[in-house]
Amino acid sequence: MSELIFMFFGETLVSVPLRQQLAVGSYLIKQKLKAVKKYPLVLMLEPLYRCNLACAGCGKIDHPDEILDKRLSVKECLDAVDECNAPMVSIPGGEPLIHKEMPEIVKGIIERKKFVYLCTNALLLKKKIKDYTPSPYLTFSIHLDGNKERHDTSVCQKGVFDIAVEAIKLTLSKGFRVTVNCTLFQGEKASEVAEFLDYVTELGVEGVTIAPGFSYEHAPQQDVFIKGKDVKDLFRGIFAIGKKRRWNLNHSSLYLDFLAGNQAYECTPWGNPTRNVFGWQKPCYLLADEGHVDTFQELLDTTPWEKYGNVNNEKCANCMAHCGYEATAVEDMLSNPLKALLVSVRGPKTEGDMVEVVAPAYVETNTTQSISDIPIKVES
Ligand code: SF4
Ligand code: SF4
Fold first, then answer.
1. Residue 309: CB within 6 Å of ligand 2?
2. Is 319 a pocket residue for ligand 2 (Cβ < 6 Å)?
3. CA distance 334 to 35
4. Domain edges within the chain
5. Taking the CB of the first residue and of the last residue of the chain, which one, N or C, has fewer CB atoms within 10 A?
């Protein structure tokens, strides 16, 4: 067991405080010892869909007003935390700071000694920060999709980048843990992303979560998403520059290796189960039209998991999101610690062949689709 803990510490998330690494590491080991096949790593808790922005690539705000006006109560949120019992809770939205009872929800999660990531676009943070107390269990995860021009374009509103940066400085000055949540879209250049990562590192944030945007069917704009091999080329470019930098990316090294086209993964959607105003969402945080159930156990038992993933379902094409694949990478790390350690030490491979791809089952053989647009299924 101690070796597994050591590998977990040695391999992953160096920016995350030791207390959190220990708690998550021992949780993972317990699941292994109990031979649990499907366990949650991060609860995605969406207590509302209402937002004060309307970003081009958002898949959450396309609901009628009666849905946007719905809120999960404090009790519903804390019941979900207890029911799922994942060691980490991410609260996206909508914009969570709009929810009047959010401080009470966060307090209840902290009392349960779960690590909570409160995801916000930061527009309300200056006004609301007084309602929260710094804690090793609380991190503000600030939405920033790149440098000033890029972020303001992504959120479709000028001036948001500056407000977010001021909020980051204020929140850090008050002793809170702060990370940045960056989603990459069409037109990104590796050099610009690297410049952005340098900038937020200098601001003093604990780490950066970074991933390609998922092609939400309900997003206001459909031409903003990066797909297929373009994603892997972009990440290879970023990581090649990153070999000489000191960025703290809040991901396991094997997930980063996957983004760079070096790992053959299928998703683990139950790793980040989603509770929102409709119930527990099948199968994951990203697909909104597959149905909901009342309990977490029902989600585990009744979701036809085999119908999802980028090999089996066209809706999953091009998904490389961390809520689908980080849990896969962590599972791989536990099974292949030496491989994980080598990738961690050397960094993701940024040159040479990527893993071999074959067309998924739903792509017809006479398709004119470019191989770079076809989601991967790798023969390992
Ligand atoms: S991406 Fe986030 S900040 Fe933007 S509209 Fe959607 S919920 Fe709001
Ligand atoms: S690939 Fe997995 S995580 Fe991604 S949308 Fe499909 S089911 Fe969800």
1. yes
2. yes
3. 13
4. 36-373
5. C
